[in-house]
Each structure stands twice: as C-alpha cells, then as structure tokens.
Specification:
This is Glycoside hydrolase family 1 protein. The structure is a single chain. The protein is globular. The protein has helices at 19-22, 35-42, 59-72, 84-87, 97-112, 128-132, 139-156, 170-177, 189-213, 236-259, 264-272, 283-289, 345-357, 387-405, 448-459, and strands at residues 12-16, 77-81, 116-120, 162-167, 219-225, 229-231, 294-298, 303-306, 325-326, 334-335, 340-341, 362-367, 379-380, 383-384, 410-415, 435-437, 444-446. The chain is built from 15 helices and 17 strands. Helix 3 runs parallel beside helix 5 (97-112) and helix 8 packs antiparallel against helix 9 (189-213). The chain binds 6-O-phosphono-beta-D-glucopyranose.
Amino acid sequence: MSVDYTFPEGFWWGSATSATQIEGAASQGGKGQNIWDYWYAKEPNRFFEGVGPETTSNFYYTYQEDIKRMKEIGHNTFRFSISWSRLIPGGKGEINQEAVQFYNRVIDELMAHDIEPFVNLFHFDMPLEMQEIGGWENREVVDLFVEYANTCFELFGDRVKKWFTFNEPIVPVEGGYLYDFHYPNVVDAKRAIQVGYNTMIANAKSIKAFRFHQFDESQIGVILNLTPSYPRSQNPADLKASQIADLFFNRSFLDPAVLGKYPQELIKLLEEHGHLPQTEEGDAVLMEANTVDLLGVNYYQPRRVKAKDHLPNPYSPFMPDWFFDNYEMPGRKMNKYRGWEIYEKGIYDIMMNLKENYGNIESFVSENGMGVQDEGRFIQDGIIEDDYRIEFIKGHLQWLHQAIEEGCNAKGYHLWSFMDNWSWMNAYKNRYGFFSVDIETKERKPKKSAYFIKQVADKNGF
Ligand code: BG6
C-alpha cells in the first residue's frame, strides 16, 4: 500500500467505548444501579428487541483478550469510561475495591501493550441514587460528581495522562429533558437548560480539582459531539436559523469548555425568553479559570437547517425547535444502513473552526463511525466485508489530513467503536465495531476494517 496521506508523528490511532456499553456485569462486582439498569427494568420494551445493559460484550471479564486484539490492529490509544456507579455505588460514600482493581488491571494491561488509556468520567450513566435526588438539576450532585472525579484522579492519575470529564454532555440534555430518549424522560426546556449549565459547572469544578494535583504531562478535556450547522441558503432567515441551531447544539458547550464563557448571543436569546438558568455567585469566574486542555470531537453527521415555514405558536412551550427547522438537503449522501447523512468535509469544517475561533485548541477525533443494521448480511468467507466502513473512514481521514495540512491542531483519530456494542435505546441495532460480537456466545471476529486500520496505524497513513 503506497501512502498518500501521512499523519504527524505519534498520531493517536485507536477506538472509543463506554462502560455501560461494553462492560456487562451490570449487577456484579459490587456495582450499583445506574439510570440505564433502572429504566430497562421498568420499560424493557423501549429498548431494541428488549435487550438491556446486562447484555454486552462482557469486557469486564474479557478485557485481557480484547486489549490483545487492540494491539493486533495497531492501536496506540484506547478510550473507555469509568462507571461512577461501579466505582462508588450509589454515587457517594464508599469506594468499591473490586472496581478499583478492575480499572487498575485495565489501565495496567493497556500500558503493558503500549496503548495509552484515554479515560472518560461520564458517558450518560448517572447512578440511580443521584438521579433520584435530581440528577444534574441538583448542585449537590455536581459536587458529588467532582468528588468522584477527584477519587479517579487520586486512584489512577499516576498512570492516566489523558482525562475527559464528559462524553457528549448535550445528549443527556436532549435525551433526558427535551426529546424523551433517555431517562428521566422529561420534556421541559427550562429544566434542560439547567441540566446543561450544571454539567458545565461540573466540568469546570472537575478541571479545578484535577489541576490541584499538578500531575506531570497530564491533560484534561471534554468530548463534544459537534454537528456543523449548514443553512439551506444564504438568505438571512436561513442563516439566522442555522446560527441559532449552532448556538444551541454546539456553542452552548464548546464556548464555556474552551473559551470559559457562554456566547453573548445565547445569553441574550435565553434572557428574552425567560429561560436563563439559575447560577451561583462565582460561577462565571470558575468557568473562565478552568477551561479544557484538549478537546475530543465526536463527529457523525452535520445539521442542515432552514428558517421555519411558520412562526411558532407563542403559547407553545419554549423549545430550540422554535427557531429553526431541520432540512433534508436533496442529493445528500446517506448511510442508508443507519439513516444518517455522510458528509466527510464536516470534519474539516469543525477543525478549521477550532483553529480560527477557539485558539487552535489541541483536539482529536474522539468518535467517528458508521452504524450498520443487519451487518451479518455482509459476511463472506466468515468475515464481515465492511468496505463501506473503510470508505467512510478514508473519506473522513482525507479531510482531517487536509485540516492538519492547513495548520489545525488535531492529534488523532478514534473510531466508534472497538467492537460492536450495546447502545442506549438502540441496543445492538446499529453495529459499529472493528470487531463483530455475537451477542449469545460473545465471540469476537475482526471485520475487514480491522485489517485496514492496522495497515493505516502501521504506516501512520494510507
Ligand atoms: C454516540 C455515542 O454519539 O453515538 C455512543 O457517544 C453511541 O455512546 C453512538 O453508541 C451510536 O449511537 P447509535 O444510536 O447509532 O447506536
């Protein structure tokens, strides 16, 4: 394979996962319940084929073999998350020593294979007891999260050098408080805004706690799913709609995380509609003083936006959707196996935006991937021939490479995901892994893309 796209030396090649989605052992090893265990027990039918978070690839038991597989496909980095409810059942109080041993073993095993652990502290998995006292709406939960984060820094900070406070903090806001796809299934924009705000306070406070340790060469960041917002046309109404979508879905997290403050336009808009969140004295100073060192960018698809055809009914409850409509651009390229748009250049636009407007913050693609339903139909001679995924990865890497050529500070690429995993309400509907997983037998098999990424990692390009 001749190399046309070479990446900077030391580029991070790896993949991303999360505790609830791969560990299994949901009620073992002393783990407490989180909102997923609870919600599944309550409403199993909301989950694809009735499959819940107890049914995963069982990484809790198989991490050694899995890490060996990571090495075999050339990973030099791997992202996983710590489960708050496993480490501190109930969210506060005693530390579960079985969990400490488990995460220690995972970290040590990764390092023994020269794979750098990237550790995320929260991937949608609120301990049930914390949700019962209000979850992110309650500032007490914010402080308990910071205690949990600090416990992780103390326990694992001697070896872990890349920390992340949250994965996609907007998703629990959208899922849990706007659009009913996460527990607690509230639909209320005012509460949603408070949840988003408090999450960013938790981010800033955790960063502050992290800095106190003065670890050598360690960095802390946040992982955001950025969806570039493209207007239907250049007419002022479409442009405005697209800017507002960008404010709600990107800048409401990106700006406080990287610049340490909310965009004025967003504050004004929320103020006009009586939807500013409750704040406490000192919040603004806290946020400004505790911004991230590193940004993980999850990118799947862009947002296409148009002005609303009709003005919203002013008596209907306030929602972000008051200000814009999503728009299905004719001729857009689709991942027809998942129903999401594929727009590879989006990754370039995100990176150039970070370069131009966010101080060229150090970043990496922390998730990018192609979900496919019924992927078994692509098996030939016992292997899933996922050429579509290889094309998808190549397309995004080309644009990432272009952004790097133009000076953006991107350091790596992680696929979602290492192996097929359980996903929130969708369970095993959409498969994303370099390795397929048989849900019954737990057998893993490399897909064609696993061989491809090995070559890419070995040559540091393709
Ligand atoms: C990402 C999340 O946004 O999307 C993952 O970080 C999730 O946790 C992934 O699994 C894919 O989602 P889905 O719904 O296609 O399975």
